[in-house]
Amino acid sequence: MFFSHRLSGLLRVQSSLLVLWAGLVCAPGPLSAQADALSGPSRSEIDAYIQRVKGRIISSFSGFATARQRGIIRLQLTPQGQLKGAALDQSFGDPECDRSLLAHIRQLAPFEPLPASFSAPDISLTLPYLPDAVIEHYLESVRPSVYARLSALGRMTRTGEVELKISGNGTVRVRTLASFGDPQLDRRAVESIKGLSPLPAIPGAADWETVSTTFSYGPAAPIPLQQPTILPTVRRK
To answer: Which SUPFAM superfamilies does the UniProt entry name for this protein (predicted)?
Structure first.
């Protein structure tokens, strides 16, 4: 997943959401059935199954634009892929989005059958998801602070690029991807942006979840921060 933002041609922000883990829990049942299930399909088979189910839901639902935070979807499925239950362990921050998503999931059912070697009576899938809209809104909120730190370094002679890895709790790691033309200036840029840590937490995200973002700053004169012109574009890969 890839996002690109430009601020009056001077600042470009790119972000990619690192992989979010989707959990697997065997539904309540005889202990032997759970053990058989876990010793049946390989973990890679189950992971692939989870990602296909999650991908089908996310790619076909158009209501995430109003989401305000990361949500967690929980599904209970039979081995044949029939839906026994759908709920949200964590809301997406918008009641209408939550209601529409659960209704959409029920309409999508049934899902594909589980691997043939899965023998438990049913399975519970935990599917965390941080929508694009939440990431974009979050980056828009932190962009001015990062831009201010870069512009405070003075006029640049070369366009440089820094990468920020922002954890769910707002902790920031910074490194230079492309030099600003002076090693000392590169170090100052990194240390200055590190001084922002911690940033506000990513809404609803777990501490271990990370958004990776790059900022490019060019040699043109800085624009006034009071009225920045934001030209967002979104690309996917």
So the answer is: TolA/TonB C-terminal domain
Output the six-digit token pair for 139.
């980056």
The secondary structure of residue 200, as a DSSP letter, is P
Q: CA dist 109 to 18, 48, 189, Å?
A: 28, 18, 51
The candidate with the shortest Cα–Cα distance to 179, out of 157, 146, 194, 151, is 157
The Cα–Cα gap between 156 and 221 comes to: 8
Distance between CA atoms of residues 117 and 28, nearest Å? 18
User: Which helix (H) or strand (E) is 49 found in, with range?
Assistant: helix 43-60
Q: Which range has the worst mean pLDDT, 23-37, 110-124, 125-139?
A: 23-37
- Is residue 200 within 8 Å of 214, Cβ to Cβ? no
Beta-carbon contacts of 59 under 8 Å, excluding residues fewer than 6 positions away, are none
Cα separation, 19 vs 211, in Å, equals: 10
Fold annotation for 23-129: 3.30.1150
Give the pLDDT confidence score for residue 40 in this predicted structure. 60
State the burial class of residue 79 (Cβ atoms within 10 Å of its Cβ: 0-12, 13-18, 19+): middle
Whole-number pLDDT of residue 88: 98
Enter the CATH code of domain 2-17+133-235: 3.30.1150
